[in-house]
Description:
The complex is a heterodimer of chains A (362) and B (263). Chain A is an alpha+beta fold and 362 residues long. In chain A, 25% of the residues lie in helices and 35% in strands. Chain A is built from 9 helices and 21 strands. Chain A has helices at residues 38-46, 94-104, 109-122, 138-150, 168-185, 196-201, 220-225, 230-236, 328-333, and strands at residues 4-11, 16-23, 26-31, 53-58, 61-65, 70-71, 79-82, 156-160, 188-193, 206-210, 213-218, 239-248, 251-256, 261-262, 272-278, 284-286, 295-308, 311-317, 321-327, 342-348, 353-356. A 6-stranded mixed beta sheet of chain A has the order 7-8-9-3-10-11, with helices on both faces. A 5-stranded antiparallel beta sheet of chain A has the order 2-1-4-5-6, with helices on one face. In chain A, α4 (138-150) runs parallel beside α5. Chain A starts with a strand and ends in a 6-residue tail after the last strand. The model of chain A has no long low-confidence stretch (mean pLDDT 89). With 263 residues, chain B is mainly α. Chain B has 13 helices and no strands. Chain B is globular, with a radius of gyration of 22 Å. The interface between A and B is medium-sized, with 28 and 23 residues.
Amino acid sequence: MSILVCRLNYPLANYQLAAELTVAPGITVLLGPNGAGKTSLLRLLAGLNQPASGQIQLGERCLFDAEKRIDLPSEKRRIGMVFQDLALFPHLDVSGNIGFGLKMRRVSSSARQNRVQQLLEKLAIEHLAKRNVTTLSGGERQKVALARTLATDPQLLLLDEPTAALDPAARGEIRRWLQTVLTQLNIPTLLVTHDAEEVAYFRKRVAVMEQGKIVQQGSFHQLLREPASEFVARFVGVNYILGEVCEQAGKLIFCSRGGAKFLAPFKQVIPGAAFMTVLPWDIALYRELPDGSPRNHLYGEIRDVVILGDRVRITLEKEDKLVAEISTRGYLALGEPQPGENFWAVFKAREARIENCEELPC
Amino acid sequence: MKRPRLFTLLLLASGLALGTLILLPVLALLLAASPSGLLQLFNHPQVLQALWVTLLSSLLALPVIFSIGLPSAYGLSRCNGRIRRSLEILLELPMVMPPVVAGLALLLAFGRRGLFGELLAGIGLRIPFTLGAVVLAIVFVITPFFARRCVVLFDAIDKKLEEAALLLGATPLQTFWHVTLPVVRRGLFAEGVMVLAQGIGLFGVIILFAGNLPGRTQTLSLAIYSAFESDPQQAFGLAALLLLISLVLLATVHLLAPRESLR
């Protein structure tokens, strides 16, 4: 079973790419904002660009080592890469595209046809075999591109935003298809995306890249519960509030920059700069402040209401901005709040997670 | 309706002038040659010989031009920065050289007393005033044009296609042969026809380097020149014939012109 271990440095236009990453067999989602260096990282792994320093180890094989002056050319790395724009060969039909890698390896014509046929069946695209690739739909092109790569038995798969160019209906289908196909393969797979839905779908292993660095690696659940940065929090849709932890009458309290005060469990937290995260679906909305257990609350004006099927996202703003996600039934029970109305956002102290951070960015 | 602006009228007028400039002489030439006159040309053995020399030399030059021009053009399209600019200037040098000067230069390089003349004579090769000289002249003049246009073709290819081929295990040579060339194949066919069309029209360089020997180095262009002095009527006929050949080649180029998607 091969595992990818890499440590790479490469100067990009605005910053240095300095990524350390371990990819085990199975799908790892590489998530990051546009321009974070995700595609650059894939190109370095594939040998299409040369890192300034670092190593790439794939299973037993060393693909790149700056110190030992090892730099395997792309054609010897046995890495399968599906480009964002797929780069299907326009002069070959679907079968020709899928069989290309085998032909280059001088695999006999009959063995090649068998393998292509086998892949076409496995990926359920036999009906496309003789089609011209320029006439395929987006989803079909995606499937052919993956089939073409799989035909050469890669030991590492790199998929650059495989669903970004598809319409929403095809996107869901391709995601399910990818999941099925890739789970059977069980080779290390790095799937680049900047789509939150995609991360939620391939939720098991996620690596987050920001400004050329891997800032967090973990499950989607961990990203939700413990976002390592503001980007991660905003990306997964978690409320992220900057402030500081203060001591008041022997008890710790979180004071947001906007001036609101919140209670939390304060595990392993010391007074000083910190941020608070709270999940939107842990926040309830009330017209009147309810009595009872000690809860955090913020009275604010509704800025934005977005109805997402059976959920409603409501943005509330006063000292701080909080996004609450409630059920549509709850929304109707509240009398369909509209922007401009004032509401209480309420959440339990134990739903708030506080973590110390470095000096506050201004 | 909107009144046409003065500037638009100006553009229209100059376009019309240019069109007339091109079409009027063409028309005059075609009117001067009757179809029966054209057919009669084929009864002259000298005309047939000139036609043969023209076609043979162009067809012989074609593979040489491709095998030198294509790899160079591909290499150049992979270069960047200062190296590329210097190489492009080198490529432009023969393009701006007047054909007569090119003929003399070739003679000085490959002639009996030229730079390589003795070397070639030593192995029993005498190039000037042979069909080989016609071919060499065509290669010398046309290859830079051909390479220049191929660089444009190669530059337009999506680099990701080649990268995808490499990642599928193709060596750079396999990638060039199985991806790059097939992707630009229509463009290359068109360039091949263009080479023929250009080669057929050469005059100055051939008459100086290869001479005007009927049946050996006299191409159609040279035959026109000779005929003009003795039998102008035949010269007009030959000119019309050459024009028709060029028109056919031009039409072919445009039928083949790259329409393939370069994705």
